[in-house]
Every structure is written in structure tokens, then in C-alpha cells.
Amino acid sequence: MGEPAKKRVPVVEGKPRISEDGEARLVGIKCGDCGKVIFTLANFCPNCSGENIEEVLLSTRGKVWTYTIVHVSYGSLIFEPPYAGAFVELEDGAFVHAPIVGCELEDIEIGMEVELEIIKAGEDEEKESVVFAFKPARAGLD
Ligand SMILES: [Zn+2]
User: Fold this and answer.
1) Is residue 130 within 8 Å of 9, Cβ to Cβ?
2) Per-residue pLDDT at 79
3) What is residue 65's three-state secondary structure?
4) First-to-final CA distance of the chain
5) Does residue 52 sit in helix, strand or coil?
6) Nearest CA among 27, 17, 113 for reference residue 64
7) What b/e readout covers 96-129, taking b as 16+ CB neighbours within 10 angstroms?
8) Which of 42, 82, 87, 92 is 20 to 30 A distant from 16 in Cα terms?
């Protein structure tokens, strides 16, 4: 609103993928053999080894499948411990490992509905680098 958006670039290439207009989405594959949607860009299906795969944009919403509280940071300086590292099951069935942000740790529950959140990790004059996480889904949208 007002300020022109800086070009967004992912810290980890493709995670998320940023479109020309700045929309950030996770990308995975859908297997034409077993039907699974998987958060990977492999050339074959990790589930059934099928090669009948297509690249798909993954759902932006899902549920917390399980999570742990991370007390010791391994490498990431973007999320300061303690934070919740979760496996999120997206609406399309893909599983994504990502931090949960935007709520207190004690409010996180298995089964909680979450949505993709893009977080600025750093910036310079032209661009900002981003990583992805999930946050509690807002009710009443969609
Ligand atoms: Zn498969």
C-alpha cells in the first residue's frame, strides 16, 4: 500500500518460488501414477518411483500434522529459538516442514489450520530476501 514493492527473492532457490508479480508459492510435483502431491522437485516420484510427474503449485493452506519446539538453532538465524518446527499437511496432501509463526508456541496444536506466510529475511536497496513459514489461518476467508 503506497510504497512500491521491492523485488522478492527466496533465500533458498525455489522455496518459495516468486512469480513476476511477486506472488510467492511453494512448488512440488504431482505423480500421475500414484496421485501423490509431494513437496520436491525430483524427476521421479519419491513415493512410487514413477516418472509420470508434473510440476504443480502447492496449496497455501493446510493443517499442522505434527510439530516440535526447536530450542537450538541449526544454521537458521531467521527464526530465533524457541520456535515451532512443524510438518504441515497441505490441502493437496503434500507435507511441508516449516516453522509456525504468528502465534504463541503454546497455542499451536496438531490439526490447527494454517496458511502460507512469507517472511522477510533481509533486504538491500533493490530486493528483499524471503523465506516461508506457516501461520494460523484466518477464519472467514476463501
Ligand atoms: Zn507416485
Assistant:
1) yes
2) 87
3) strand
4) 22
5) coil
6) 113
7) bebbbbeeeeeebeeebbbbbbbbebeeeeeeeb
8) 82
**In the numeric block, which cell numbers belong to residue 54?**
508434473
SS3 107: helix
Per DSSP, the three-state class of 106 is: helix
pLDDT bracket for residue 20 (50, 70, 90): confident
* Beta carbons of 45 and 69 less than 8 angstroms apart: no
- How far is the centre of ligand 1, averaged over its atoms, from the C-alpha of 109 (Å)? 30
pTM over 0.85: yes
Q: What's the distance, CA 23 to chain centroid?
A: 13
Quick one: cell of 66?
Answer: 505434527
- CA 27 to centroid of ligand 1, rounded, Å: 16
* Residue listed under C-alpha cell 507435507: 95
Residue ranges of the domains in the chain?
A: 7-136
Distance (Å) from CA 34 to ligand 1 centroid: 4
Ligand 1 centroid to residue 32 C-alpha, Å: 7
What's the whole-number mean pLDDT along residues 45-71? 96
